[in-house]
Amino acid sequence: xxxxxxxLPLIIEKAGLSIAPxxxxxxxxxxxDITIGSLIHTLREQTQISPTQSxxxxxxxxxxxxINEIVGDLYDKYKDRDLxxxxxxxxx
Length: 92
Fold this sequence. Notes:
Elements: E1 7-14, E2 27-31, H1 36-47, E3 55-59, H2 71-78, E4 85-91
Parallel strand pairs: 1-4
Antiparallel strand pairs: 1-2, 3-4
């Protein structure tokens, strides 16, 4: 947070029993104004899933955001005590 004050730290992990491939990395720094749709696009490129498969995100295993929501707003609402926003993904 000190080195990149304009970025938000995210940890994106595969859902527990998911058949989804793993990401190349789990920690991300994103700008406050990025949408969930843009984040999904980035993750789709990293996992190289087929166009017929769907990628779903979940925050704290409780909330599923829509593609128009801003990550900065979700970070303010759902960040953990360690100042990371934890997101899990699943592919169907």
